[in-house]
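Troubleshooting entry. Yesterday's outputs looked truncated, so today I'm pasting the complete records for two proteins to confirm everything comes through intact. If either block looks cut off, that's the bug. Protein one:
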Amino acid sequence: MLILAFDTATDVATSALVADGDVLGERVSVPRSLLEDVDALLRAARVEPSALDALVVGTGPGSFTSTRIGLAVARGLAIALELPVAGISTLDALGAATDNGYPVIDARRNEVFVSGPRAVHPDDLELEPGVVCVGSGAVRYRAAFERAGAVVPSDDDPVHVPRARLHAALARDFGPADDLLPVYVRAPDAQVRSAA
């Protein structure tokens, strides 16, 4: 099965072309470059879009706008190419990068997104001593997590990036693009401001 996978929920966008579990290519950039990355992956592998069997997209949580970029691209490609799609939590993909990794995504507003999914202040998390925290939230709030006894790999460790190849590896249930649902956890900043 030839899968195009991508995730744009965080500040780092990842994309990968995976054939029967083998990674044919992978890119890391920023969400606004997603279509360029997809084009580059397909060209490098000499694969026509019509050869794709399925898509996998990260559903968040993360940045509201960045998550919407990924889902919009997934819906557009799925409809245009008549492909089934699977949505995978960005937290699940991060957690799959290490054995027993605890995924933590920077949620801004002095919070992190963690499994549940939920948004919490880093100091409010109860962590097992020695747990390995991975993701942008782990990097940003390293001091808080290390005070709690957690281990945070170095900032440049690849385990902090939600790799699209991990999304592809986790995908099991494929369906129509209309079934894709984002994981936002909380209302977008614009709604919070207008309500105040």
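Protein two, checking that the full record survives here as well:
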Amino acid sequence: MGLNLTVLGSSSATPTLQRHPSAYILKSNKRKDYFLIDCGEGTQILMRSAGIRMQRISRVFISHLHGDHFFGLIGFIFSQNLFGRTEELHIYAHKPLKKIINLHLQLEKMNLSYPLVFHTIDMRKKKNYILHEDTFMEISTFPLLHSIPTNGFLFKEKSGSPKDRKTFAYCSDTAYTETFIPYINGVDMLYHEATFMEDMAVAAKEKYHSTAKQAAQIAKLADVKQLIIGHYSARYKDIVPLLVEAKSTFPNTQAAIEGTIVKV
């Protein structure tokens, strides 16, 4: 058993020369398929650079509908059609995204070569609930605290002995809140946004984002084993200070860097 997280994009609202908008690939050692988590612009190019076989992506999870988290999705959907994909592609996202996708398909007068299955994240549910479950994996979602409806995702392996079953929680854009701690408590690895450093805590709160220190505080309170921080503001040319700040509260922290693969 085991999960591997490939970092494709670690930037926040805008790309930089070194960093790209949010996109992550999660792969289970027991599965042939991949999960794509968020899909900022340029994701296809980054997947090629990382050697990801795009046709093996079976499910896409979009945390919310700010462009830096989904602007690459339309291109990915269209490319899969050009490649002659026949396998189903499942998308989990908030309801307006389905309308956006359908509008593009209508404008292009495109009939996809594969079934595109859209699963709406139900914002009426204020607690965590299961989005998908199969023999090997259970995937649930829970609300975060951002300027628009935003959700986190929890991936839990099912088969194998209990000690070998790995868990990964993805918490994208969110202001500091302890409301979702019960859902991620004790996970093997937590990804939590860290857009700003603590000296910009006021701005972080106003923009419904978190600081590196706050991300580390959540990891500590949730008793997770490992923390990955990302979604850095473009103002930071060097992300080492953010990592140092997080480590001061939660030592087992790693910074998301494009192209790296983190074993859960």
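Both blocks look complete. Sanity check on protein two: The domain at 3-263 is CATH 3.60.15.10 (Metallo-beta-lactamase; Chain A).
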